[in-house]
Amino acid sequence: MKSSELFETAKTLIPGGVSSPVRAIKPYPFYTKRAEGSKIYTEDGDSLIDCCMGYGPLLLGHAHPFVKSAIKDQLDNGWLFGTPAEAEIKLAKIVTGDHPSMDMCRFVSSGSEATMAAIRLARGYSGKKDIIKVEGGFHGAHDGVLIQAGSGATTMGVPDSAGVIPEIVSHTAQVPYNDIESLENLLAKNNNVAAFIIEPVMGNIGPILPEDGYLKEVRKITEENDVLLICDEVICGYRLGIGGAQVKYDIKPDITTLGKIVGGGLPIGVFGGRREIMEMVAPAGPVYQAGTFSGNPLTLASGIAMLNYIHDNSRLYERLDGYTKIIHESLPEKYRDSFVRLGSIFKLFFREKPPKNYVQAKESNTEKYADFWKKMLQSGVFLPPSQFETNFVSAAHTEEDIEYISGAYNKCL
Ligand code: PMP
Known about the structure:
The protein has 16 helices and 14 strands. By secondary structure, it is α/β, with parallel strands linked by helices. The chain has two domains: 31-63 and 315-412, Aspartate Aminotransferase, domain 1 (Alpha-Beta Complex); 65-311, Aspartate Aminotransferase, domain 2, CATH 3.40.640.10. The strands form three sheets. Strands 4-10-9-8-7-5-6 form a seven-stranded mixed β-sheet, with helices on both faces. Strands 1-2-3-13 form a four-stranded mixed β-sheet. Bound molecules: 4'-deoxy-4'-aminopyridoxal-5'-phosphate (PMP). The site of 4'-deoxy-4'-aminopyridoxal-5'-phosphate has 16 residues, from helix 4. It catalyses: (S)-4-amino-5-oxopentanoate = 5-aminolevulinate. It is an enzyme of class 5 (isomerase).
């Protein structure tokens, strides 16, 4: 069946026809039959160069042989135990070893679960009620953070969700990104703040990069005010390099959340931090958290393979940085200033300059983006369908792919 027909049927069975809102491309999304390396093969017989990469997890590309073989080996030994398994210890050793801020970590099944648990942990540890998030920051689809959330929520025009009761979000305050003064002012007025949750490099209205010194100031001010710093590195983790944004920008959060790449493409979330904080988590401590699929053997096998591969091939980060540099430098001159890139992440904003925060990002011309996006798709390049989602290249992209993408940018712009 073709994508348009599949979507008609899907709409009768699944709300909006999709399992996650950003996928509801108009007039209908293409359906993927198979994916390998840098390519997606659709039900309509098209092959596309993928710059969405599962929204970030696929740093090595689709169906990477090394990760695939680890998953296959695990399949022969069962895929859900409901008991501890040695692989948890192996993955925990890699993850804590790569993040100097983490003495301990706990595995969950998604980034949303990780941030939900991290916020509960911060409240349980500090005994305080409020949290601060960044305007436009997306930390998953749970109640306390669904206020002016980026990416899908921003594109769909529903930053606040129906069904989220005001009492819950009344404990969530917001500050603009790259704005230290607002954070200082807010903290001066409120001494009931448990945590400040921030994506160190914003990936969900962006990417938007931190200005020089911003993250170090954030760390200093949160420390001075006895507020826990939660770095949500669900996108940044292993994307900006081993150790993510916190190593790159040399900051030490109290709690870190990870997801995406850590699972090698299978569902995962991780939260971790200092021992005295993490030992508050059940059953070691009083902050409850649990999950049937947490630390499941298939994801652990895939994650361990992914992270081992990255450690053995860490030069891949330089290659990917080179790729986004080529795309940037080959753009028509008038677009170069509004292109943002950091390592393997990149995005062209339809505004004059890269945004510094949510308000500026929202000024982008989303109609122009939609037009451009469609042309790119027709040219055989799949970009994330929203102006507010980050583009990714992977280690599976070849120099020819990058040349093709650059050519498509030029043609479609
Ligand atoms: N935090 C950030 C920074 C994210 O980008 C996302 C997902 N895009 C999440 C949390 C939620 O992760 P998941 O979709 O795995 O629940």
